[in-house]
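Objective 1.3, modelling of assemblies. Example input:
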Amino acid sequence: MAEPEFLIVEAIYPGMTQLDFTAPHTIFSRIPGARVVVASEPGGPIESDGGLVFAGARRMAEIERCDLLFVPGGYAATEAANDQAFMREFRRLALTARYLTSVCTGSLILGAAGLLKGRRAACHWGWRHLLPLFGAIPDPARVVRDGNIVTGGGVTAGIDFALVVAAEIGGDALAQSLQLALEYAPAPPFDAGRPETAPPEVLAAVKARMAPQLAERAAAAERAAARL
Amino acid sequence: MAEPEFLIVEAIYPGMTQLDFTAPHTIFSRIPGARVVVASEPGGPIESDGGLVFAGARRMAEIERCDLLFVPGGYAATEAANDQAFMREFRRLALTARYLTSVCTGSLILGAAGLLKGRRAACHWGWRHLLPLFGAIPDPARVVRDGNIVTGGGVTAGIDFALVVAAEIGGDALAQSLQLALEYAPAPPFDAGRPETAPPEVLAAVKARMAPQLAERAAAAERAAARL
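Predicted structure (tokens):
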């Protein structure tokens, strides 16, 4: 008898950060024995940030269960956390999953689903302080594992995160072969990827640009938390 | 009078490696003053590897010119290099561009367009040795700049590559602010991203898996090179 396949559901929503979704998808879709299903609440095309439109997402309601549930982040994450139809399907699938996973502000969606109470989780550095609204413990690590919950930090952390997940599902040699096939030997031209290492004027500029969104998103996160 | 916008055209094709495309797109689409146009030869939906379908690509023939032309790689790169309709439009746009750029095996497409004669270029480690078919000089660096040509290595090198391009177009502070916003402080769980560092048995397994494709792709690259 064949091994039952390992079903990964990627729950996406309008306005997600596309790289939060596409980097893990690249790795998940190359795990032998895993089947990846991309789904949104209504199904059909989904527009991400940066204008890319993904066609062909399945309807979440059509999917009975999964082994691993994944959700990306994005400026729209707190909007998704307040979308009752999305959250109902997300929670239902989460109850069937062996692993609950996210990248970036996707952890705010896990939190809003009531799945992070007392659990450590990663999040994008700019929004990590919102996690306690959902009873979660913010962790600055790039990939955080707490029991069956695996979360990644901001955007590009999705590569490191997905390799950790691949190693968990298929073993270290599989993850290493994916890393080699994707030539993942990063060499950033600057050392500006974290608030602690970025030039102070760069950090100040990015924070200033995020400020209006932060106020709005914090209010949305509070609304979502009030429903828990 | 407003600054004229900097037009980036991303030339995509069926079977491209989606992360080759989506990682640079994330960065290019966040460069202030740049407009990014995604285009394919026929226009419309394009299916990438891993099953993701991108909707809404423009027809290449509709685009008059660009400042920067970008092409991703993928197992299908040598197929694209033999697609006369795609290559005709690609060459036409290349002649209008100030910068010619690629990630991964996208450099084989630049080569097949006759743009790399005597120029250094990067490529995925597994296919880099095919560059001399097009008169190019293979360079193992993660990001290679030779005059107006900027090329990145395999798949994930697209992040480093696009940050180098962002710095060239908009300055170091812009590239650093994008790096910070994308939290690009990589922490791979293994050191297996290059043939030189991967465990020998992992390298052997990946090479064995690539072998049948390599023979076929090398033959396709030779057919494309014969037309130069």
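The first helix of chain B runs from residue 18 to 28.
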